[in-house]
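Dear H.,

Thanks for agreeing to be a second pair of eyes. The structure we're designing against is below in token form, covering all 248 positions.
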């Protein structure tokens, strides 16, 4: 059928598209599916994305959201589930649910340059506010190394344990902003709160991993000592293995 036909079938949901349809690869998308894609932060690319791939993205996101219970939120693009230990990130690639232990680092990029990296806010910013476990929000303003009058982009870069898609971006602004404006200052404060919350989570991960590692070393040393006491290992062998464990 032609583009002007009212009886095209939506390649995503299977319903009729009506007149206000949108071209996708191999077919058309109805207005409702396009609206849903925007709500779920999915970037629909006309003529390139198929209706089936959009449908699969809907399914993936909805399945992930089933197990997410928001306990705190910093902005529309970032919220936390302290109960199930997950964060919800609305990036340029859609909505992603990330487990706490899969978060690696966070940075604030201003015009693609690093403005703040993990640890850049400090573990307790003077004048900041801390509350609610991993839902902690760290406030306060860090000084800029170089003053700029205009900023063209501001986004938070989050690195996660994912070999295929290891980096997510929360885009706060993609247009020119005066650094003296209230809008810029508001977005900067939002970015700092996101980074502060993620730093708290990443710090907790590091503490847990360090504790587990120390416990594992203690267990290994105990086993080695038992082997030494039983005469299975010589003193020299015990000392060599002990050195390896303690210096891993």
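And this is the sequence the design step returned. I haven't edited it by hand at all.
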């Amino acid at each position: 059928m032609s583009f002007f036909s009212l009886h095209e079938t939506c390649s995503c949901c299977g319903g009729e598209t009506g007149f206000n349809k949108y071209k996708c690869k191999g077919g058309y998308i109805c207005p409702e599916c396009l609206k849903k894609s925007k709500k779920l932060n999915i970037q629909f690319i006309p003529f390139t994305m198929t209706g089936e791939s959009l449908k699969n993205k809907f399914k993936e996101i909805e399945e992930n959201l089933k197990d997410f219970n928001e306990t705190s939120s910093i902005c529309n693009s970032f919220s936390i589930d302290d109960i199930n230990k997950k964060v919800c990130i609305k990036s340029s690639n859609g909505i992603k649910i990330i487990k706490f232990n899969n978060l690696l680092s966070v940075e604030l990029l201003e015009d693609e340059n690093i403005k703040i990296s993990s640890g850049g806010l400090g573990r307790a910013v003077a004048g900041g506010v801390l509350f609610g476990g991993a839902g902690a929000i760290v406030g306060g303003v860090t000084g800029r190394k170089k003053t700029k009058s205009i900023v063209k982009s501001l986004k938070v870069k989050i690195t996660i344990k994912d070999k295929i898609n290891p980096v997510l971006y929360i885009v706060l602004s993609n247009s020119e902003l005066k650094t003296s404006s209230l809008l810029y200052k508001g977005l900067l404060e939002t970015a700092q709160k996101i980074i502060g919350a993620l730093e708290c989570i990443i710090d907790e991960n590091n503490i847990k991993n360090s504790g587990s590692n120390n416990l594992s070393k203690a267990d290994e040393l105990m086993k080695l000592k038992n082997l030494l006491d039983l005469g299975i290992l010589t003193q020299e062998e015990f000392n060599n293995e002990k050195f390896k464990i303690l210096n891993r």
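Two observations from my side: The helical segments are 31-39, 51-66, 182-229, 235-246. The two ends are 67 Å apart (CA to CA).

Warmly,
E.
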